[in-house]
Amino acid sequence: MDDLIADFVAECREMLEALGGEIVAWEAHPADRARLDSIFRFVHTVKGNCGFFEFPRLEALSHAAEDALADVRAGRRQADGALVSAVLAIIDRIGEMVAAIEAGEDMPTGDDNHLIDALAPGAEGAVAPAAATAADAATKASVAPRTIRLSVELLDRVMSTVSDMVLARNELARRLRESENDVHVDGAFERLSSIIAEMRDAITRTRMQRIENLFVGLPRMVRDLSAELGKQVLVDIEGGDVELDREMIEMIRDPLTHIIRNAVDHGIEKPAERLKAGKREIAILSVSARQSGNQILIDIHDDGRGIDGKKLVEKAISGGLVSKDDAAQLSPREQLALIFEAGLSTAKEVTAISGRGVGMDVVRSNIERIGGIVEVDSKPGEGTRMTLRVPLTLTIIPALTVSIAGQHFAIPRSAIEEIVRANGESVTLEHLGGAGVATIRGRRVPEVSLASILGLESNVAEKDRTLVVLRPAGGDVYALSVDRIHDHEELVVKPAAPAVMATGLYAGTTLADDGSPILLFDPAGIAEVGGVRLEAQERAARIAEGPSAAVSKATPVLLFRGLDGGRRALRLAVVDRIEEVPASAVKQAAGQLRVQVGDAILPLAGATGAEIGEGKVRLFRLNDGAHEIGYAFAEVIDFATIEHDIIHAERPGEISGVSLVNGEPAELVDAHWLFANYVGAAAREPDQLVCLVPVWDPWMQNMLRPLIEAAGYRVIDDSDEEAPDVVIACQGEDVPEEASPKTIWLRTEPEAAGKKDQSIYRYDRAGLLMALKSASGGRGK
Amino acid sequence: MNELLLVVTIANERVALPAAAVESVVELDTLIPVPRAAPHVAGLSALRSRVLTVIDCMRSLELGTTDCSDGIREAAVVELDGHHYALIVDLVEDVVESLSEPIPVRAAMGTGWERVSQGMVETEQGPLLLVNVAALIAGSEVKAAA
Questions:
Q1: Which helix or strand (DSSP H or E) is residue A308 part of?
Q2: Does A291 fall in a domain?
Q3: Residue B51 to residue A494, Cβ atoms within 8 A
Q4: What confidence tens digit (pLDDT) does each residue in A725-764 have?
Q5: Could you give the domains of chain B?
Q6: 0.80 surpassed by pTM
């Protein structure tokens, strides 16, 4: 609201300033129609806005002036000196009030009625003080212009100039490196560089816009849609303050609109249906945005009927999109992903809103065009969640530069999965009917030679090339063989000329540090030109994986060096990914070392805390399907396989044994032990013991509850319907007999009341724990 | 109608480009090829931190290929739809004033010239063919598709 008021104030002041000249001119020629019109527009705008903001006095004033001016415009009245003065007095008063609103002060006191009365035909002007107040207002207004309005074109021009400046600086840097120069020049250049970097940051921020601008129209759209369809939908919007590149906001406007229309039309049921399904009549459609790294995540979640994956598959088969055999192998996730295939709609009938089978495929291609991903997750009967992941900005892209036949190219880093050497141990290259197939750690991926795609002669033998494994947005993995890998760079990417884009291979152009132009590849385009059959290949790759895993007994492991320098190996399957966090993210907390990764706090293994110095900590993120832990390490040595016998450790521990890996001994990290020890208490098993603690007793909730939870119980209160294993109660309290297989009575006095008193003194920790233990024993565990 | 014209030589033919469209005349040194682009796209070059798409005019007119191997080439820099192009020409001669509206050439020209022609203009140096820059950049559609 404050923002809106600030906008309103800014708009009023702008208009008042522009009006200054008009008013004077109008005073001289009251019959001047053009002046009259612009003054009328002003009071009209003020009136409209005031009604919205509840400034009744402003509204009354502007309304009266508008009426009088409307009469003049309609020819019902002649503009005379008295009317002009009265209108001017009102405009001055409005200026005064706007200044007061801006300064956050109370409205200037005084009655406005005489001003309004002065508008009446034939009234004598009571306008003497107007001049003075106007002067006041003017000085006040000019004191603090906190915001100004700029045209978007101007901002774009500034942005592109700054980009050019960055490139010019890079070129200057290169020339400085080439020539001998003295320290002072270098120092000055460093300073210039940092200023330019700062400026680029600032100007990038000016292009940022709150995503609110995109969200603000949604409630209205959903309201109209649901009214049309006879549904009741409540829109819940969150994260409107997330900022996104202005251009990006425009790019996701249509896809977002489409998803929401779909959700209301297909996802959400009619009220009667919802009641039948045991849901509230009013459906909730929540739209939320949040930033995660250099991505923005937009979630659109409805609690409607969800998407039926099986139905999608049937549709896809009957539509000829997939064959029956392929369809049988689709995972639930892949079934849902069929929704993005062209020409597929599960709607029973085509409605005016959506359901023509065009749309979701367009949504996906639009999002992918800007380097984003769209994901779908749905549970039949419970709802659907669509997630859009889009990059923060379009203009600066982290990229990897590669070369082929001496020419440099860039590949967007977001598409790169991994980089392997063609002659590496875990890689074999084969040719099937002229097509290249690379087998990387048992996975078959199509191999595309960049040299042959581009029609360039490479003088690097196939064996010595490097394979860049790419996963284009929405596509499937393939390996691109290049001569050499060079560097990671942040590139300011600009669209290339149409003649260049027409090749379908490039996403844009940029200038490298040495000032020479570099073409940025479009990974999806290369796959297409290279003839990689995406869907089919990926399925084949999945089939190939099965048997190869069964045939070879070798276990793939990740060979790494621990923080203490030890050469260790970890089974590849448990490693989710590798993360790098600042050392400050590692903290001793709640009894063990923990690390913050994004929004999650994970137990950290592989370190004792002493080794974590300054700077960055690299860690593996291990996943057992339900829990995650971090494992700190110094460096990754290689991917390898265990082919030799494992000599097992005598006692269970972090290291389960030792084996020869790549000819040298390596300790095998026991992932089971890690999870058992690091997750242990945090894990909540489904058959955990349940303890009922009265919710109304603050002592129990605050003092006792942590103790019980530490003993491995899950605490519930009276409102839960679950049957507890143990009930804790104070003496003198009634506990329903049937729901208390075992009740522990607590007394507040240290001394027992008598021999029959089985209660425990409430600060007798040992006694309490004993009682809890015997309770769990009583359950036969 | 006193439009200024830039007189250049392409394939030994003196033609005029509308001077208003030409930002500058440069000498290109480095040329980065664009694999798989249309043949008349000679490559990319950089000018004052801007990427130029270099168009080989001879190729665009289907009159052969400019030999870029000897290094420095003269080119006229133009902007079209927000992209900057450098048109490789044999020689940049002069700027002259047009003395007439372009009028259609009634004699038969080569197909390439026909495609880029905007008509004939009278100048102090005699009649010159006014070349449509956009058509020159678009190149031969037939060839691009093939």
A1: none
A2: yes
A3: yes
A4: 777 777 666 655 554 557 777 777 777 666 566 777 777 7
A5: 4-139 (2.40.50.180)
A6: no
